[in-house]
Specification:
9-stranded mixed beta sheet
Length: 318
């Protein structure tokens, strides 16, 4: 299936992958996977967030592909991954380990990064032996492990039961987002981005978010509303860096600080002043720099080899 939902020019237009493949999850869900860069280079695996797609990582892919092998995949129901019947944190973990198995050789390791729901995917997979086998270090961007609706500041009212109830209704709405209009851009910018976000960044995010099917957006909103991965954070033993925006309304900076305190092997907390929820787009250089640092510190020559591609992978012609 094809649902292109992204800008087609500029730094936030996704580059064409060198290779594509389909990873099959435990329940048979088929996941669209893209591979950028050369075989044999240090590998970074990218998991996007709720309502997004591989296009969300365009800036990181462009910056890293010359020196790294970059794997990005569409979460089930997002981008070019078909919708599935199951929506749960278990399914997210199943999907991630399926992607790791399809793109990495036995024992080969990568730096795994997740934004928002992608970070929750990493937490959910933390105790899996397949995750431990293939993950040298992790990066959690703009994410949290629990109390997402209660802590969200999308509505400019005092915290409490009323705000939590209304926030849950707004985020879980079945209403279609419709086309990207000037009003839609303003709403998305207010809810998900810092006040100083440039128009091209807002446009890039709006195109991606508005392309997410309404049913998929609603189904995953219900999972996020009941999220409780606090115990899983304690199992995330690999070196893990945390990034958060101080102006994030969806996962306020309290989440990043809480994760940094709870992780057994936190190797740094970066608070990006004035940035909102969409940190890989709002502050692409900072996120890319964190990925480079993690690969330099925790990947070595034995983690980059030429056998880490599934035999079903298809070469892209120039």
């Amino acid at each position: 299936m094809s649902r292109p939902g992204h800008v087609v020019s500029g730094p936030y237009a996704p580059p064409a992958p060198r290779r594509e493949l389909v990873a099959v999850s435990a329940d048979g869900a088929r996941l669209h996977v893209e591979v950028h860069g050369e075989r044999g280079a240090p590998t970074v695996v990218l998991a996007h967030g709720w309502t997004c797609s591989t296009a969300f990582w365009a800036a990181q892919i462009r910056a890293l592909a010359a020196t790294h092998r970059v794997v990005a995949y569409d979460q089930r129901g997002h981008g070019r991954s078909p919708a599935a019947r199951t929506h749960s944190t278990t399914a997210l973990a199943d999907d991630l380990v399926a992607v790791l198995a399809a793109t990495l050789a036995p024992g080969e390791r990568a730096v795994v990064a997740g934004h928002s729901m992608g970070g929750m995917t990493i937490m959910a997979a933390a105790a899996r032996p397949e995750f431990a086998e293939h993950t040298a270090a992790a990066l959690l961007c703009s994410t949290g492990s629990s109390r997402l609706v209660a802590e969200a500041q999308v509505l400019p009212v005092r915290a409490g039961r009323a705000r939590t109830r209304i926030t849950g209704a707004v985020l879980g709405s079945r209403a279609p987002l419709g086309p990207v209009t000037p009003v839609a851009r303003k709403v998305l910018k207010y809810a998900t981005m810092g006040p100083g976000s440039a128009p091209d960044k807002v446009e890039a995010c709006a195109r991606i978010v508005h392309a997410c099917p309404t049913g998929v957006r609603h189904a995953w909103s219900q999972v996020l509303a009941g999220l409780d991965l606090d115990a899983d954070v304690a199992r995330l033993a690999v070196p893990t860096a945390v990034i958060g925006g101080t102006a994030d309304r969806l996962t306020p900076i309290v989440h990043a600080r809480g994760l940094a305190a709870a992780l057994p092997n936190c190797v740094g907390l970066t608070e990006l002043t004035g940035m909102g929820h969409m940190t890989p787009v709002e502050a692409p250089e900072a996120v890319t720099a964190a990925l480079r640092e993690l690969t330099e510190l925790y990947l070595d020559a034995t983690d980059a080899n030429d056998t880490g591609l599934d035999t079903t992978e298809k070469e892209k012609t120039p």
